[in-house]
Amino acid sequence: MLFAILFSSRTAVAPLERLKILLQVQNPHSIRYNGTIQGLKYIWRTEGFRGLFKGNGTNCARIIPNSAVKFFSYEEASKGILWLYRQQTGNQDAQLTPILRLGAGACAGIIAMSATYPMDMVRGRLTVQTDQSPRRYRGIFHALSTVLREEGPRALYKGWLPSVIGVVPYVGLNFAVYESLKDWLIKSKPYGLVDSSELSVTTKLACGAAAGTVGQTVAYPLDVIRRRMQMVGWKDAASVVTGDGKTKAPIDYTGMVDAFRKTVRHEGIGALYKGLIPNSVKVVPSIAIAFVTYELVKDILQVEFRISD
Predict the structure, then answer these.
(1) pLDDT tens profile 31-90
(2) Solcar repeat boundaries (predicted)?
(3) Considering the domain boundaries, does residue 24 fall inside one?
């Protein structure tokens, strides 16, 4: 059931996800993707229907363990933080505050991201491959083995530091804003609800969309830097053809700070938000489809099931 929810939501927005990554790592010397509509049309014209879904298989395979670890870690971290908070304040009825939820969400995000990071790294490279690029990776396992053999184990964690830093505001704000909005709606006098189970799917969808929008906007520059660092050392496949017919390898980065500095210096601060529009567009439909699929599958199987299970 959980697989159906995640697979449906991820696959539906896969074209926007791929375009986002292509915009993030696009060589400034050869602009092929210029905006959401033009970018999707270009992919369709040059790579066909299948090109819109490159990297989606890896993303779906990664998201199952990632989500499982994330939700489990969040619940366990929340219990631990709440216990410590109650011990410190001496109030056994105390509840998690938005800041404490932020901390629990950040812990969950870091653990889940670290556990599945190698798959995210090769997913980025598989997504960037085009029909015009030299083909080096035939799939997840081929990409993992090739990177290990040619670049070493550390290469599987390129871009891990900005990912860790970015996951704090992203996942942390997601959980904090989502849970806080639900609490606010429940406690608001006009609603008079008892618990979150009485909230409609549409209301929860709105809370999730708001949380996702806030989190991804704050953390987005770190996501751009992460993707660019993941491409370092993959010059043959990541290089692109410029207007004069020559190949131009992507800029090499020695670390996160160097990547920030060179990106801003060569392309301006706006480069830190490349791909933000398609990424924002996919937030609402992704969450919407996840909730709708969840309700439909639950009705078909006639079971009561929580996503956090």
Answers:
(1) 888 888 999 999 999 888 988 998 888 888 887 788 778 878 888 898 899 999 898 888
(2) 1-80, 96-184, 199-300
(3) no
More confident residue, 16 or 216: 16
Within a domain: 110: yes
The answer to whether the Cα torsion of 11, 15, 16, 22 is positive or negative is: positive
Whether 18 contacts 54, CB under 8 Å: yes
Structural domain contains residue 138 = yes
105: closest CA among 70, 148, 68, 144?
Answer: 70
CATH number of the structural domain spanning residue 193 = 1.50.40.10
3-state secondary structure 29-68: CCCCCCCHHHHHHHHHHHHHHHHCCCCHHHHHHHHHHHHH
List own/partner pairs for 180-187 with CB under 8 A and 24 or more apart. Answer: 180/98, 180/101, 181/207, 181/210, 181/211, 182/207
In a domain, 269, yes or no: yes
Is pTM, for the whole model, over 0.85? no
Q: How many domains does the chain have?
A: 1
- Structural domain including 157 reads 65-275
